[in-house]
Design a protein that fits this description.
The chain is globular. It has 13 helices and twelve strands. The chain is an alpha/beta fold. A five-stranded mixed sheet has the order 1-2-6-8-7. A three-stranded mixed sheet has the order 3-5-4.
């Protein structure tokens, strides 16, 4: 329900603009929206590429960060590898020209051309795609500032860099999201009165059982928040799990018919369009369900080959994910 969520947020922003502040995240991106189902959702509900483009225009205009009480820096992912970066540099970026951050910086660096400089593109990429190094898991990571290999974009930054950047800009606390946390939030003490908080508001994300959390900064809190944790209701979790399991059971029970249908649709192709995949599921399973928004959940990570195949599904790999396992009591 991405359309309903963003429509609600836009309506709240229009109604009380001084009380609703929206930052841009890494999924507010025209390529990522196509790769992860938002484009499919817009098309299935409204059939309008123009509407999708208009939403992306708004996403490009969203602020990259928010400052609370001159103490707290709120951003989607983290700080940048670009030396000398300050709040003025971030404010000066022509955001309207940046509808996508995927590969934009590396393309500009290789001379492929872009409306923004490679420096600014790397800065935006880092703000939206980076992750902090966890000192509990990597005690020697305080001074790390390296490519974020886990995501293929942004940086992996150490607590020492956070401390230095916050102090340089007269701030005390970095608040970011971008990572699911078991209890909904996490804190890294960066030293000298500075800290990095990760907050993730979606509880039971992808049926993972995690808590959700919000941070509350009261006037005079000196950059230290009150944390509120919560969990979605058991009834909601149970219903979602049951529906997912029924769908998995249907796919497993109709694998042979699906294979025949996919072969008929694909011919000699290994990749088929998302729309072809969704319609084949509807025909075989006899369900009046728009499967396109469920592509990521059912298929897994989409194929991103130079960002040209975000709307394709490898039907054979999709079927291979669904297997019925039989356990014999007392067997090995």
């Amino acid at each position: 329900k991405g359309v309903e969520v963003i429509a609600t947020l836009f309506a709240l922003k229009a109604a009380v603009p001084d009380h609703v502040l929206l930052n841009r995240g890494n999924h507010e991106d025209e390529h990522i929206g196509r790769a992860y189902g938002f484009f499919d959702e817009v098309m299935s509900k409204y059939g309008s590429v123009t509407l999708y483009d208009k939403i992306q225009d708004v996403f490009a205009l969203l602020p990259l960060c928010t400052i609370i009480e001159d103490e707290v820096f709120v951003v989607h992912a983290g700080i940048s590898r670009v030396r000398g970066t300050n709040l003025g540099h971030i404010a000066g970026i022509d955001r309207a020209r940046l509808r996508t951050t995927v590969k934009a910086a590396s393309d500009a660096q290789q001379g492929k051309g872009h409306k923004l400089s490679a420096r600014n593109l790397f800065l935006v990429e880092d703000l939206l795609w980076s992750d902090p190094a966890n000192p509990a898991l990597d005690p020697g990571s305080e001074r790390d500032m390296e490519p974020n290999a886990a995501r293929g974009a942004g940086t992996r930054y150490g607590s020492g860099y956070v401390r230095d950047w916050l102090r340089k800009n007269g701030l005390k606390t970095l608040v970011r999201s971008h990572q699911c946390m078991p209890k909904g939030w996490d804190k890294i003490d960066c030293g000298q009165g500075t800290a990095c908080y990760t907050v993730f508001s979606a509880s039971d994300y992808d049926s993972g059982g995690n808590d959700g959390a919000v941070l509350v900064f009261e006037p005079g809190s000196m950059g230290t928040p009150t944390v509120i944790e919560y969990q979605s209701t058991p009834e909601t979790n149970t219903m979602r799990s049951r529906n997912r399991q029924r769908l998995v059971d249907l796919i497993c029970g109709h694998k042979a018919e699906l294979r025949v249908e996919f072969k008929r649709v694909a011919g000699r192709r290994r990749l088929i369009r998302v729309g072809e995949w969704a319609e084949a599921l509807q025909r075989v399973l006899q369900l009046k369900v728009d499967f396109r928004p469920l592509r990521l959940e059912l298929v897994g990570m989409p194929l991103l080959v130079g960002h040209t195949r975000h709307d394709m599904v490898d039907w054979a790999l999709f079927l291979d994910r669904y297997r019925i396992e039989v356990t014999i009591p007392g067997g090995g």
